[in-house]
Amino acid sequence: VSSCTFSPNGKFLAAGLNNGDISIYDTATWTRIQVFKGHQKAVTSLAYSPNSQQLLSGSWDNTARLWNSETGLTDLILEGEPNKMRPETLYSEVAFSPTGQQVATASHDKSVRLWDARTGASVFVLTGSAGVFSSFAYSPNGNTIASTGWDETIRIFDTLTGLLVLESGSRDDFIMCLTYSLDGQRIATGSLAGRLQVWEVAATTLELRLKCIEHTHGITSIAFSPDDRWIASSSFDRTVKLWDSRSGALISSFVSHIDCVSCVRFLPTGPYIASASYDRTLRLWEINALRTGFDSHDTADLQFCAAYSPDGQQLITGSQKNPIRQFNANSGEVDFVFPDRLYNIYCLAFSPNGLQLAIGGSEETTVRLWDTHTGAAGHVLGHRGHVDSVEFSPDGRWIASACAEGKVLLWEVGTGQLQAEETIDSGDYGGNTVAYKPGCHQVTSCHGDGAIRLWD
Length: 456
What we know:
The protein is mainly beta. It folds into 2 domains: about 5-290, YVTN repeat-like/Quinoprotein amine dehydrogenase (Methylamine Dehydrogenase, Chain H); about 295-455, YVTN repeat-like/Quinoprotein amine dehydrogenase (Methylamine Dehydrogenase, Chain H, 7 Propeller), CATH 2.130.10.10. About 0% of the residues lie in helices and about 50% in strands. The protein has a 4-stranded antiparallel beta sheet with strand order 1-2-3-4, with no helix packed on it. The chain has a 4-stranded antiparallel beta sheet with strand order 5-6-7-8, with no helix packed on it. Strand 3 (about 20-25) and strand 4 (about 30-35) form a beta hairpin. The chain starts with a strand and ends with a strand. Mean pLDDT is about 85; it is low at about 80-90 and about 290-300. This is HET-E protein. Pfam families: WD40.
C-alpha cells in the first residue's frame, strides 16, 4: 500500500496500491466498498476534492487521474509533457486546491504543474528546483504552494501568477515531505535523516521553530491533525509517530508495521490515524490524544489523578487547585463538579457498582465518600497523614487506604469504621500504594522500602 487519504467529509478512506488499484473503504464500517481500476503501476499519491465528490490520484504509469468518487469512473487523465513515456514524468504527489478549481501534480521532470480541475488544461508549470520536486502542499487559503526538492530548499509560489514569492534553504538535509498547518501559519517538514521540523511562515522568510529527531530513518509523510495540535509522521523505520505540534514532544510511537510506512493521514471527523505501508497493510489507529473533548488542560494547575467509572462512561479527575470534576467519557463534557472545593487530591477510586467515589488527599488527611449520582457527601475516614492511595474491595464492602508513614488501613464502607491498621517502616521514601487482587479479599501494598506485601 503506497498511499492513503481520507475524504474531507470523513466518510471514505482511499488506499493506493502498488498494482495500480485504488481501494475505497467506508469509515462507518471500515469495509472495502469499491475498487477503482485504471492505473497500470503503483498509485503514489491521493487527494480528495474539498466537496469529497472527486478523487485525484498520481501514479508511476506517468498519469494522474481524476475520478468520480461515487461511480469510480475516470473523469480526466492528466499526462506530462513532452513525452509521457519517459520515467522522468512519474507523478510523485498530487493535491486539490482548497477551492477545488485547481489540481496540482509533482513529477520527476523537476516541475510542479497546476491544472484546471474541470477541463484538465495546464495552467502553470512551477520550476526552480535544481533537482526533482519531492513534495508540495497548498496553503489553506489556496493562494500559495509550498514545495521542496532534492536541492534542500523550500520554495513558496503564488498560485495566481505562478511566480516565486519566498525561498528558504535548509541546506543541511534533503526534505522528503512537507505540509501546511490548517491555520496556514506553519509548515512541517520531514527529512531523509529522520528530522521533523516546524517552520513559522513569515512575510519574507521561514523561521525554524522546532526540530525533533526520533525517527531512525527518513520521514516519508507528515500530517497536521484537524485542530493543528498534533503532527503525525511516518518513516522508513517502520513506525508512525505522534507529536505535539507546539512543544515538539513525542506523544506516541506505533510499531506494528513490518516494512516502510509510506503514508499517514488523520481522519477529519474522529480520533483516528490511517497508515499505509509496503508490508501490504493499511492500518487504522485510534488515538486517545485526538479526542479533543477530553482536553482539560490547565497550565495553572497540576492534575494528580483520574479514575474511570466501572462502566467506562464517566471520568473523574483530581488536581492541586481545581474542584473535582466528572466528565462524560464519550463527549469529554463536564457532567458534574463536586460541591466541596477540596485541594491536592492525590487518589480516586470508584466502588465496583459505580455508585460511590472515594477521594483521598493531603489537604485534610482524609478519605471522603461521595454519592456519584447526587454528589452528596458520605462517610469521612480520618487519617493521621496525607493519603497516598485508596481502593475498594471487589465486593464493595471494604476500602483499603495507604497514607504517610507507611500505614495501611482497612475500613468498612457501610459504617465508615476503621477495622484494621498496619504500619510499615518504609523510611522517608513515601511511595505508599494499595490495590485489591481481583475477585478476592487480598490487598497488595507497596512502600518506599522497595517491598511489595500481600495482606489477607
